[in-house]
Specification:
heterodimer, A: alpha/beta, Rossmann fold, 2 domains, five-stranded antiparallel beta sheet, B: five-stranded mixed beta sheet, two-stranded antiparallel ribbon
């Protein structure tokens, strides 16, 4: 038996998935969730083999929920996006079903999943997917804070530092770790507001109090929070561009 | 702008040219002494400058209620007489009595010709200037029409896109798909409601303004479908006066606002959500106020509400006003107020 979780904000959409899945006795629906928060909890609790996930959901989007999981389960996305938005899914060979769902497409996706169920890698391309379906830059970053989910508005970020496989996000209410690369965080935030001034640091330009020279060709940025952040030669050039110096 | 700038130095130089020409002519033909001819030229230069410049200013500032040609003729004649008068004054100031007496015959003769020369010159200038202005106006109006035509096309396209709302349509079809299995009767009803909604959308799309009543019907069709999709979670609270037949509104403004309210209301919270809509008409202004609860700590994931931007743009296209859509947030509520002048 494969454990399945359905995550979709519309009850009728979940009902449809239920009835389509009822043709496959080897799948057992162990939970149904109406948003990303519930989905996150259910996935941690049940460790499902497969989830059906709607991308646009209340409170926490499908992508944000996946970002928070240490071990991403195998996912089939269900979405009402237009076909063009799904090019990124195609490009990364990620299974998705367009709404309204068709039985034929559903069956194909399930059969394909069954064939590769044991060899399936987790999704590696979440940031690229998120960018492909949404216009504009991220207004917030979602992190785990002692088991709970915390939403950090982009405006509340003091600065971001690299920490091995994680990034450390500094806010007035404390520091939070998120499993992500600096490159992904940099790409998702608005470049007019956030500048990657160093391999290991991203700062909001509004937080800069002072920039001082440091050794040859590098600088140190003093932030309003009192933190000191290294600025590389390339970082200085980016800063100058953004600030129009 | 650049052509009018050119004219500012063109006019004095023309005046100067005219004055120099007069001076030369007088020297050759009138047999005047060089000094007197020079003074005569100076008088002309001064009085031409003092009349041609005001003529241009007056023509450029002409009141639209009068015909421009008539206006130019009157302006030209009045300033022409004034110019001649000015010339005489300048002459009296510049030339001593002795000088005047020396060429008394010539002065007496020229005095008369001034009264023809100046009005004629200024009349010609004013009418010419008025024609130029008319030409510029016609060109401007033509450019404006071109602009309006392209804006209209843009608005048409925009309306079309608003009508289609693929996301809403796909989700509704998905819900219908589920209903065919669990509640076939309801599926049939939902299909006909969705068809009604689309029919109205196509019909309204051709009109600039529609009765508020029809727009509210359209909104109710939309809300009925949303209520099926979200089940018990969505409640709508209507209040205020129902509008009469004379209240008009551009189509498709309310639905995107409601969609926005639902998105932030229902998507921001998990339990049941009440969205209130209040309609009132006061002093030739229709006000529709839509209020939804929202969680300010849940920032929108990416981008901002497209719905609001779209409505604002349409209001601009129809009324050329930026102040008709107001938003406010307080105490966990988001309020959008749409104002439509009647």
């Amino acid at each position: 038996m494969y454990k399945v979780i359905l995550i979709d904000d519309e009850p009728l959409a979940r009902q449809l998935l239920q009835s389509l899945l009822s043709a496959y006795p080897q799948f057992d629906i162990i939970a149904e969730c109406g948003d990303g928060f519930e989905g996150f909890k259910a996935i941690q609790q049940h460790a499902p083999d497969l989830i059906f996930l709607d991308v646009q959901m209340p409170r926490l989007s499908g992508f944000e929920m996946l970002e928070l999981l240490d071990e991403a389960p195998s996912v089939i996305f269900t979405t009402a996006f237009d076909q063009y938005a799904m090019d990124a899914f195609e490009a990364h060979a990620i299974d998705y079903l367009l709404k309204p769902l068709s039985r034929e497409r559903f069956d194909k996706a399930i059969e394909k999943w069954l064939k590769t169920a044991d060899t399936r890698p987790g999704i590696q391309a979440l940031p690229a997917l998120a960018e492909s379906v949404a216009a504009g830059y991220a207004q917030r970053i979602v992190v785990k804070d002692r088991g709970a989910i915390r939403i950090i508005p982009a405006n509340d970020i003091l600065h971001i530092e690299a920490a091995d496989d994680y990034v450390k996000i500094f806010t007035r209410e404390g520091n939070f770790l998120k499993k992500a690369t600096m490159g992904h965080i940099e790409a998702s935030l608005d470049p007019a507001q956030f500048v990657r001034v160093h391999r290991s640091a991203i700062i909001p330009v509004g937080q800069i109090a002072k920039i001082e020279p440091y050794e040859k060709e590098s600088h140190i940025a003093r932030l309003q929070s009192g933190a000191k952040v290294p600025v590389s030669k390339a970082g200085m050039m980016k800063l100058k561009q953004v600030l129009g110096w | 702008m650049s052509s009018s700038k050119k004219i500012w130095w063109l006019i004095p130089s023309i005046c100067l040219g005219a004055a120099v020409l007069t001076l030369l002519l007088l020297l050759e033909l009138g047999g005047l002494s060089p000094l007197l001819a020079f003074k005569e030229g100076l008088a002309m230069e001064l009085s031409l400058l003092l009349t041609v410049l005001p003529a241009m200013l007056l023509i450029n500032a002409y009141p639209t209620k009068v015909g421009i040609l008539m206006y130019a003729v009157v302006t030209g004649l009045v300033l022409g007489i004034l110019g001649a008068e000015l010339h005489c004054i300048a002459r009296n100031l510049l030339m001593s009595d002795a000088e005047m007496l020396q060429d008394a015959a010539w002065v007496a003769r020229s005095q008369a010709s001034l009264w023809i020369l100046y009005p004629g010159l200024l009349l010609f200038f004013s009418v010419f200037q008025a024609q130029q202005r008319r030409l510029a106006e016609i060109q401007e109006r033509y450019a404006q029409q071109q602009d309006a035509a392209s804006l209209l096309k843009e608005a048409e396209l925009f309306k079309l896109r608003q009508q289609l709302q693929p996301h809403f349509l796909y989700n509704s079809l998905n819900a219908i798909s589920a209903l065919t299995i669990t509640a076939p009767d309801k599926a049939t009803e939902m299909i006909s409601r969705l068809a009604d909604f689309l029919r109205t959308a196509v019909k309204q799309g051709k009109r600039e303004l529609v009765p508020l009543r029809e727009e509210l019907d359209y909104l109710r069709q939309y809300l009925w479908i949303e209520a099926v999709r979200f089940g018990d979670r969505l409640r709508i609270d209507w209040s205020g006066q129902e509008a009469g037949d004379t209240t008009l509104i551009p189509p498709f403004l309310l639905q995107p606002l409601m969609e926005n309210a639902i998105r932030y209301g229902v998507y921001g919270k998990t339990g049941a959500v009440t969205i209130s809509i209040h309609i009132e008409q006061r002093a030739n202004m229709l006000r529709v106020c839509i209020r939804n609860p929202y969680d300010p700590s849940l920032k929108p994931t990416r981008g901002t509400g497209f719905g609001l931007e779209g409505v604002r743009r349409r209001l601009w296209l129809v009324y050329a006003r930026q102040d008709l859509l107001l938003t406010a947030e307080a105490d966990g509520y988001f309020e959008t107020t749409l104002q439509i002048p009647q």
